Amino acid sequence: MLSFALRRMIALLVTLAVATVLVFTVLEVLPGDPAQVMLGTEARPDTLAALRDKLGLNQPAPERYLHWVAGLVTGDLGVSYTYATPVAELVRDRLAVSLPLAVFALALTTLIAIPLGAWAAARRNSAVDVGVMAATQIGIAAPNFWLAMLLALLFAITLRWLPAGGFPGWSAGPWPALRALILPAVALALPQASILARVMRSSLLDTLGDDYVRTARAKGLSAGQALRRHALRNAMIPVLTIMGLQFSFLLAGTIIIENVFYLPGLGRLVFQAINQRDLIVVKSVVMLLVASVIVVNFLVDVAYAAVDPRLRRRG
Amino acid sequence: MALLDIQGLSLSINGALILQDVSLAIEPGETLGLVGESGSGKSMTALSVMRLLPRGAQTNGSIRFDGQDLAALPEPDMCRIRGRRVGMIFQEPMTALNPLKTVGDQVAEGFVLHLRLTRAEAARRAQAVLERVGLPATEISLGRYPHELSGGQRQRVVIAMAVALAPPLLIADEPTTALDVTTQAQILKLLRELIRENGSSLLLITHDLSVVNAMADRVAIMRAGEIVEQGRGGGLSGAITHPYAKALLNASSLPPRVTSAAAPTSRPILEVKNLVRAYALPRRSLFRAAPRRLAVDNVSFTVAKGESLGLVGESGCGKSTTARAILALEAVQGGSIAFAGQDTSKLRGAEMAAFRRRVQMVFQDPYGSFDPRHKAGRIVGEPLRLLGRECDPQSARRRVDEALTEVGLDPADADKYPHEFSGGQRQRLAIARALITRPDLIVLDEPVSALDVSVRAQVLKLLTELQKRLGLTYLFISHDLAVVRAITDRVLVMRAGKVVEAGPTPKVLGAPEHPYTRELVAASLHLDAILSERTAASLPDAAGC
C-alpha cells in the first residue's frame, strides 16, 4: 500500500512538472506579446517597453520559466498588475473562502447522496426509489443560481436565519464565517448530491446483483446486512471517481454562486483577472487549479487502493 | 422422515413458468444428484429451497426441511436457517467471494452471525475450518484476499464457508464445473469426506454425469422444469429407464476417434519450431527491468494435412497463447511458425490476407465472439472480405447459404440475430463462419466446453463429418480428455508452457508416460470406467441381500 502511494506520488510530481511547462508555453511562449495583451492595442510604446521590462519579457524564455517555477516552489508568485498586491497574498485570501466552501459543499454532497442512493437501491422500484429518483431529477435540472436565490429568499429574507451574502472573514471567529457559507454550500451541494445519489444507486444495484452478495445471503445475512457488509464498499469505486471530479469543480467552478452570495472566492478572482487581462494572476491561479486537480486525482487513486486490495499491486 | 421434502413445487418468474410440480426428498446422510442440461431448472430448485430467488418469483407447493415448512417461515427465521442448517456452495469461485474482504473475514462471518462469537474466537474457528478444507495457515493466511488465490483454492474457501457450521444439509450447485480436471477430482474428494464426517445430506446439482455418478447415492433427472426420472438407489444406473435420461447418458460417453491412417505420410501444413512467448510482468523496482513470464517455452510440433491434433493441459498452461501465436495475432519472442512452408511472421499485405483465408478460428464462447447487433448472415459472411473482389454480393449470399447448410442450419437463419439461437446453434454458426473461406486449418479453442452434453456430442459429430468431407486440418484445444479422445489423432500435453508428452491420442491417453499426463488421465472422471466400477462394487451387496 505504501509503495503504491509512493509510486503514485512520483507520477504526481512528473505530471505537475509537465503541467508547468504547458501552462507557461500557452501563456508566454506562443505568439502574442503578454505586455500588449495586458495594456491593450492602444498602449504607448514607452509604457509597453516599461511593462515588458518589469515582467522580465526581455529575458530568454527558458530563464523566465525557471524563474517562474522557482517562484512557485518558494511561494513567490509575483505582483498582480491590476491589484498591485503580491499574487500569493491574493490567492491565499481567496482560498480562505473557496477551500472551506468546497470542502463544506462536498461533505454535504456526500452526506446526502450516499445514504439516499443506498436507500433507493435497497428499496428498488418502491415508492422510496421512485421518490428519490424524481427528486434527484429535479435537483440535476434546476440551475444552481436559481436554487441559490430561492434559498436566500427563504432563509435570509423571510426567516432571517442566515445572512443573504457577503463574507465576514475568519478573523471574526469561525461561526460567523461558517454561517455565511451555509447557504452557498447548500446551493452547490444539492445538484451535486443529486448526481452522486444516482451514481450511488446504480452502482449499488449492480453490486447487489453480484454473486458474492448471494453467497452472503446464503450464509444467513439478511438483505440489509448483505448490503451494508458486502455490497456497499464494492459500490464505492464509481462514487469516488465522481466525488473527485466534483471537488475539482467546486474549487473554482463556483463563479455564479460566488456572485449570487457576494463571496470573494477563487472563481471571482479568475473571472476578474481574465477580464482585466492580468496575466500574472491568471497564470498562477491556472497553475494552482491544475495542481489541485492533479492532487485530487492522486487522492482518489489512493482511496481506490484503500477500498480495493486488487489495485494495490498495480502501478 | 426425509430431511428435505419438496412436494409439488412450481415456480414462475414474472409470469414465465420455470418449475412445474417438482417433488424431491433427501434422507439424512444421503447424496442426491440433480442432473439436467442448462436451463432445466436445477439451480432454481436449489434457490427455492434457500428462498433466494430473483425478483418477481412466485412459488407454489411445499418445501419441508426437518419438519418445518420453509415457505411459511418469516424472513428472520429463514436467515437463521441459511448457513446454519443449510449451507450452499456455488459454481463460480471467481465471483462467489467478496473481492474486498479477506478470506478469513468471509469464513469467520458465519460464526459471528450465528454463534455470536467474538471476532478473535471466530477467526480461530475460521482458521480451523480452512485447515480442514486443505488450506493450512502455512499456505494461505487469513489475511489473504480472493484475487491472490487460485481457482481451486477459492472453491475451497467457498466450501469452508458452507460447511463452517456443519449444516445438516449442503446444496452444491455445479461445484466443480469451473475447475480443471485435477482440481475437480480433489474438490469432489473433499466434499465426499466432509459430508461423511458431518453426516450431512448433499443436494448435488450438475450437468456432468460423471461427477454425479462418482458422488450420488440417488439421481433425479430434470428437463424443462420437471423431474423426468428419479432413481431409487444405486447412483446413476438406478435412474436410466426414461428415454431422455438414456439419451443424456449416451451423449456423455463419447466414442473414441477412429484414427485415419493417412495422416503421418502427408506433408506438414503447420510447423512450429522452438516457439517462445513471454509476457512482461509489472515492475517490482524502477531501476530493474520488468520480470518476464514465459507463457510458451520452447514448443515445437508439426501438424500434417488432414490431421487432427489435440492440445491439452490445465488452464494457464499456454494452450491458448500458442493458438494465438499460430494465428499470427501476437508477436512471438523466439522460434518460428511456418504455414504451408511460409514463415508467418514475414507475411504482409496480400500474403497475409491469403494466410488469414486459409487459417480460421472457432472460440469457446460463440456469444462473446459475435457482434450482438449483426445478423447471422453478416456474421458468417464477414470473412469473405478476405477474398476481396473475387466475391460479388450474389456469390457471397450463396456461400453464406452453403455454409449454413453445411453445419446443419437453415439458410433462412441468416436473417436472425445471435440471441435468437441456442448455445449449440451459435457454435454451429461459429463453425460456419470458419468454413466460409474454405480454409485448410481450423484452430478450435475449447469449442465444446460451454455446451451441454447432448449438444456437445452433436457438435463433435459435425466436426468429424466436416473434416472427412472437406479434408480439413484441426488444431483442437481442450482441457477435457474425453473430448480430445473423441476428435483427435495425435495429442500434445502442455504444462507450464512446455510440451511434456506427445504422440498418438490412444497411446498417450491410454498408456501415459509422463507423470503429469498420468495425473491428468487419472483425474478425468472417465464415465465408462466409473460406471463399471460402480456396477462391480454394487454387485456383491446385491448378492448379499
TrEMBL record, chain A:
GO cellular component: plasma membrane
Domain of life where this protein originates: Bacteria
InterPro entries: BPD_transp_1_N, MetI-like, MetI-like_sf
Annotated ABC transmembrane type-1 domain residues: 95-300
Sample GO molecular function, one term: dipeptide transmembrane transporter activity
Alphabetically ordered keywords of this record: Cell membrane, Membrane, Transmembrane, Transmembrane helix, Transport
Bilayer-spanning residue ranges: 101-122, 134-157, 177-197, 235-257, 285-307
Chief localization: membrane
Residue ranges of coiled coil: none
Record's bilayer topology term: Multi-pass membrane protein
Keyword Transmembrane listed: yes
Compartment list: Cell membrane
Family under the similarity heading: Belongs to the binding-protein-dependent transport system permease family.
PANTHER family in the cross-refs: DIPEPTIDE TRANSPORT SYSTEM PERMEASE PROTEIN DPPB-RELATED
Name the record gives this protein: Peptide ABC transporter
From TrEMBL, chain B:
InterPro entries xref list: AAA+_ATPase, ABC_transp_ATP-bind, ABC_transporter-like_ATP-bd, ABC_transporter-like_CS, Oligopep_ABC_C, P-loop_NTPase
This protein's UniProt keywords: ATP-binding, Nucleotide-binding, Transport
Compartments (UniProt record): Cell inner membrane
GO cellular component: plasma membrane
Gene3D superfamilies per the UniProt record, alphabetical: P-loop containing nucleotide triphosphate hydrolases (3.40.50.300)
Residue ranges constituting the ABC transporter domain according to the UniProt record: 4-249, 270-521
GO molecular function: ATP binding; ATP hydrolysis activity
Biological process annotations from GO: peptide transport; transmembrane transport
Membrane topology qualifier: Peripheral membrane protein
UniProt-listed NCBIfam families: PRK10419.1, PRK11308.1
Family of the protein in this entry: Belongs to the ABC transporter superfamily.
The protein, known as: ABC transporter ATP-binding protein
Organism of derivation: Alsobacter metallidurans
